[in-house]
Write a structure and sequence with these properties.
about 20% strand, Rossmann fold, globular, 9 helices, alpha/beta
Length: about 270
């Protein structure tokens, strides 16, 4: 049976009343792996990776608050708020401990959980992570976003998303990425980036207890090799895998390799990497 035959689309209402959209693959008794997307994406950012992972894993890809088809309340868009939603999501599904996989913006929510709730994180995979204050691109985003009309122009979304990938991706997949990004309300494009720029966990990274895998493309236009080096210096147990000829989105650009590395890390730890 192909993993795509075992896909479930659902929503869960958290104890706070917030409803989050998510996609689930695999058996309920499988080892849980939770995927957190980047800005301004949705669960779909992992759609090329999920079908390639072992069928015995329980894979959950969630739309964070404000994104995709999840609820879009007026407030609660700090990194700590989004991380709190993820913990509440695990509670709602009665999952005590999971591997967290984050991409870009989602890595910061994953890091926050690993720091503040270490008992909930089995392993940590960070794809295209960095230090927001060190990224000129992220620093310049607020000025580009402040005067955008509502709704966000499709061409702006398309140009931004295209700028993050180095390798070509399937046309149909990329078009859906753009459509998904436009589900994020215009007011939240800026608010979420402002929240990211205010977030600084650099002094707490040493408190991450979970084995941590960094995946980084050597043509990443948002976060640099120096960001990866700084993370490893602050979090000595982290290991770095560099993907050559790859941009900020290895999960789009090299899904087979990302799936293989996640599977090896979840099932065997460092020994198979």
């Amino acid at each position: 049976m192909n993993r795509s035959d075992n896909v479930r689309f659902d929503k869960v209402r958290l104890a706070t009343g917030l409803s989050l959209n998510f996609v689930e693959h695999g058996p309920n008794n499988g080892k849980p792996v939770l995927f957190l997307h980047g800005w301004p994406d949705s669960w779909f950012t992992y759609s090329r990776v999920l079908p390639l992972l072992p069928q015995n894993l329980r894979l959950l890809a969630v739309d964070l608050r404000g994104y995709g088809d999840s609820d879009k309340p007026e407030s609660g868009y700090r990194i700590s708020d989004l991380a709190g939603d993820v913990v509440a999501f695990l509670d709602a599904l009665r999952i005590d401990r999971a591997t967290l996989v984050g991409h870009s913006f989602g890595t910061f929510a994953a890091r926050h959980i690993a720091i503040s709730q270490p008992a909930r994180v089995e392993r940590l995979v960070l794809i295209g992570t960095g230090f927001p204050h060190a990224s000129p691109v992220v620093q310049d985003l607020p000025s580009a976003l402040r005067d955008l009309p509502d709704p966000i122009p499709m061409e702006f979304a398309r140009d931004f998303q295209a700028s993050t990938a180095y390798r070509p991706v399937p046309h149909e997949f990329f078009n859906r990425i753009v459509v998904e990004s436009l589900k994020l309300p215009a007011r939240l494009w800026l608010e979420l980036i402002d929240g990211l720029l205010k977030y600084d966990d650099s002094a707490q990274l040493r408190n991450i207890e979970a084995p941590t895998l960094l995946i980084w493309g050597d043509h990443d236009a948002l976060f640099s090799r120096e960001d990866q080096n700084r993370f490893r210096a602050a979090c000595p147990q982290a290991r770095l895998k560099i993907y050559e000829e790859t941009g900020h989105c290895p999960n789009w650009e090299r899904p087979e390799r990302v799936a293989a590395d996640i599977a090896s890390f979840v099932q065997s730890g460092w020994s198979e990497l």
